[in-house]
Amino acid sequence: MATFQERFNMLFDDSDLSQEEFGAKVGASKFQIFNWRSGRGEPDSEMMKVIAKTFKVNSSWLLGETDIRTPFDAEAALTPGEISPADLALIRKFKSLSPSKQKAIEILTSDNEQSAAADK
């Protein structure tokens, strides 16, 4: 599993923000960000939540505890009982895929839906 430092650096590098800009967004000093990037420390749990929310990732993913990158938005889900645990696991897996893989699945499923309608 990846470490906080690896995942933080990946997200930070993809963001195109300077350390000053990111620090202003999350309320951290340039020195703190430098330490997180260099592996000389990790943020406390409250700051970890702020960082995860800023980058729109799961804080457990950020810590290297899971491979599920994006948080699941329970409020956006269907009403309780309409989604099974297996459905939820599939959604989480889909959301952890790269955008190109998600697009490929969307294309495949849209083709299958059209084929199924044509077969009827």
Number of domains: 2
Q: What is the CA-CA span between the terminal residues?
A: 46 Å
Uncertain segments are none
- Strand % is under 5%
Q: What fold name stands as the CATH topology of the largest domain?
A: 434 Repressor (Amino-terminal Domain)
Whole-number radius of gyration? 18 Å
Helix count, DSSP H or I runs of 4 or more residues: 7
Mean pLDDT: 83
- Identify the CATH homologous superfamily of the largest domain: lambda repressor-like DNA-binding domains
* E-strand count: 0
Helix fraction by DSSP (H/I, runs of at least 4): 55-70%
Secondary structure elements and their pairing?
Blueprint: H1 4-15, H2 19-26, H3 30-38, H4 45-55, H5 59-62, H6 85-96, H7 99-119
Overview of the structural elements:
With 120 residues, the protein is an all-alpha fold. Helices cover 64% and strands 0% of the residues. It is built from 7 helices and no strands. Helix 2 (19-26) packs across helix 3. It is elongated. The model has no long low-confidence stretch (mean pLDDT 83).
Keywords:
64% helix; mainly alpha; 2 domains; 434 Repressor (Amino-terminal Domain); 120 residues
What is the gist of this entry?
The protein has 120 residues and is mainly α. The chain has seven helices and no strands. α2 crosses α3 (30-38).
